[in-house]
Amino acid sequence: MGTPHDRYPAGTAEDAPAVRITVRTADRMQELGRRLAALLAPGDLVLLSGELGAGKTTLTRGLGEGLNVRGAVTSPTFVIARVHPSLTGGPALVHVDAYRLGGGLDEMEDLDLDVSLPESVVVVEWGEGKVEDLSEARLQVVISRAIGGPHGADAPPAPAAVDGMDAAPLADDVREVTVTGVGPRWAQEDLTALEG
User: Which 8-state DSSP code applies to residue 72?
Assistant: First the structure.
């Protein structure tokens, strides 16, 4: 039985180089999520990594908007996984927070992600080292705080926070997002479209 990605030629991460995007606000992080959604298809696995408050859920909220799914996309930390069905017949968004799961794929199997994956887009926060075996192809998204830039009196004031990210530019909260395609699905995909 084939998977949705059998139509893609074999390749490696080297075939689809990583793109690095500077994101200055929460709104721009959501916008990046919407652009990313345009590249995703049923069966895609996206691993999000970054410290607490980096913007993982904010990016996923944009993915949900781009995929046109039902329900507010919020952090699934306490429920572990949320399924957001499509409003338009597209793939559902399965949003997982693996932060509290320590058992790797064994614990993840209890969530039946392998059942959901073929017809959904599965996004796993804190999934590094835990869910890579779900699919031979995945997108790895690493969000980190940018280092350097103007600080002190010349830096813009901090507005109200949204999911750990400020709504307006703030030198200390600029993010660097690195997106890497791993496996045959991403070998020929042009990730530079994310640079918008």
Answer: -
